[in-house]
Fold these 2 entries.
Entry 1:
Amino acid sequence: MSKFWSPFVKDLVPYVPGEQPKLSKLVKLNTNENPYGPSPRAITAMQAELNDGLRLYPDPNGERLKHAVAEYYGVCPAQVFVGNGSDEVLAHAFHGLFQHDRPLLFPDISYSFYPVYCGLYGIAYETVALDEQFQIDVADYNRPNGGIIFPNPNAPTGCLLPLQAIEQLLQANTESVVLIDEAYVDFGGESAIALVDRYPNLLVTQTLSKSRSLAGLRVGLAVGHPDLIEALERIKNSFNSYPLDRIAIAGAAAAFEDRAHFQQTCQQVIDSREAVVTAMQGLGFEVLPSAANFIFARHPQRDAAAVAASLREQGVIVRHFKQPRIEQFLRITIGTPEQNHALLAALG
Ligand SMILES: *Cc1c(COP(=O)(O)O)cnc(C)c1O
């Protein structure tokens, strides 16, 4: 703390990201990165930007990327917003769409950035408990609110809500924005982008950090009614006109255009996930049904923090949240078959 700090910054409670260790030998299964690497076409497109053109500012609107996303999802570019990682897109949505008199609703077990953004933007919130099986019941959200947000699949549980349930929620909740954070949807879910033309209060966010393996590039997006997108543009143009640089716009657009690489690598992750689940069940773990590139598991006889510490000593890092209801769970990213093998050997 310092006397130069404003009173506001003194009381901020920031998000704590998963560790990015400096040691490269570690089997890193703690932050849900994709082990397969980005599309070679994205790499080529980014290399092509490394020239004298970098003296010029990028396109403030990232039109090339908006078009690639619109083409991929069969929507109009005016329904697409792009930003510096989906965390930034989420921040703009909190700032521009959730600051209302009524509280924002999200699950008690969910992405831990949501309460942080509520603190940053002064948004009141209420958490809604997941059921005994750690599932979202959309009927529980049928109460006064200034917005609803949850990841689908949920994080850190990995559990998927079918599109039908999201549609039920949208039919019951028409007076506030429903934001579905689809950071992991490509690993087994169906995108709610299919519903944006019918529900003007639906905003869907996605990231290129997970399924497109570009966490280091920082690109995220939102799809929804042009009026919702305009709110995000107004915030963005009041904060940073150029959230995406030339390299990011080119690389992200090319990543969306390379469907073959995307589909193949997602399928590899899905296949590995099923193998890891089976093996962990064989070791006595209880594993929640996952539609993501990670699993959430607990062992009835082993303390989760102790297991995480032991794994770490063996060179495998996973994520443990010291939080009510889930302190006996570990969140484990699906890696390559070799990494998964190292995990299972260490657990054994
Ligand atoms: C990873 C993640 C994000 C953020 O992704 P970015 O890297 O900022 O694009 C958003 N929501 C959830 C639930 C995530 O797990």
Entry 2:
Amino acid sequence: MATSVKPHSEAAHLPHSPEKETPFDQFNYPIPKEFPSEGMSARAAHAIVQSECWTDANPMLNLSSFVTTFTEPEAREIFASGSFRNFADPDMYPHTKDTEFVCVRWLHSLWNGPKDAEPYGAATIGSSEACMLGGLAHKWNWREARQKAGKDASRPNMVTGGNVQIVWKKFLRYFDVEPRIVPLKPGNYRLTAEYLDKYVDENTICVVAIAGQTFTGEDDDIQEIHDWLDAYEKKTGVSIPMHIDGASGGFVNPFLDPDYKWDFRLPRVQSINASGHKYGLVPPGLGWIIFRDRKVFNENLVFYVNYLGGEAPTATLNFSKSSATILVQYYAFLRLGREGYTRIMRHALEHAQYLRDRLTKNGKFQIMNKTQRIPVVALTLDKSVTRYNEFDISNKVRERGWILAAYSMPPDAQEINSLRIVVRPHLNRTVVEILADDIERACEFLEMHGGNATPPKLHDSHKTSVAKC
Ligand SMILES: *Cc1c(COP(=O)(O)O)cnc(C)c1O
């Protein structure tokens, strides 16, 4: 039984004292099967941990993910210094806590929140926690209004499109809200107002529309949905709020298309989430939920605690956490400003457009995103390509280090496969050209030799594909 580092045969060659360790001994410590009974030198532990990750993907080439993989040294320094300050302790770290509110206020104004409103929101661990908080606020508000009116409040539902990210399905299941998911169809991968009349009713807590969806990068038809809900209210007297899932679009639309109304300029938009760690340019672990006004966040969701000293309100799903990502977001806003984010996003979008043009030029690929807002290229192979599929291409370019997501679309567009490239700002033109060359070469190879990949089987309980995010 390997309960310590000793019994392994190689352990015999290891020095008896850490001081005698050679530079290569550090790689040779065997890893115990059970909880280690003794420790080892810091160098050896460090080497083991690092070596475990050697064959993992290179995050810089992982273009299946939206998550930031580059920050400046100054941001890293802030990240390191912030990581030991518990963000749940505003009494001890009041000025760290203040940076969250500054960011909330800035995002509220970036997303055109009404000037006379009281900005309210929170830093979260990613958009997932932010979406849960948005959904909960709408559920609580809906229930309160129903109870006040003496109506049944036992069957809340939420309406959204089949293109939603998995977090909304989690929210619906974890918090017992009936899913009303408008299916996609081949050729249309976004939520529009077309079928809303079959899904929306007086028990709808909110309609969730996406700015920068996971599958094709497109926006739902936010304005059309908004106007449809206005007309619905006129007809029925039932007023339904909208939540915008701006995980990606929240940090792109304001910079690349400031006149486009996807945000609080639409009165029905009561809450917006975004991922600080996607196009917000912060390392993984940060999201934002911003409410149109303080009163949208139901007071019954707020708890007051006094056990860290002082009395502090808390209304997030997590409690203790590092302050690192929030401070880096504050840094990024100051460092870049609108001008900096605009320039960065414009470059990324130009690179996406370059890839899109290059890869569709010879007729092998069709583009899936009709509009190009966030820098994502979603491709599907043309029907004339029969010897290989999107999964084959993803596998083939992996030999060159690239990670590109290949997946089948959610219901009812499952027969369509997609190859998706998330163009993040750290990619320069040279790298993007190399990627295009590598994809073209992979296709030539596969045309000659044929592919054999089959789309992975989907888990029954979900019956929907989950694009990585
Ligand atoms: C990424 C993503 C999420 C989930 O966000 P995390 O920040 O990964 O928790 C939700 N919705 C959309 C549209 C996304 O792209």
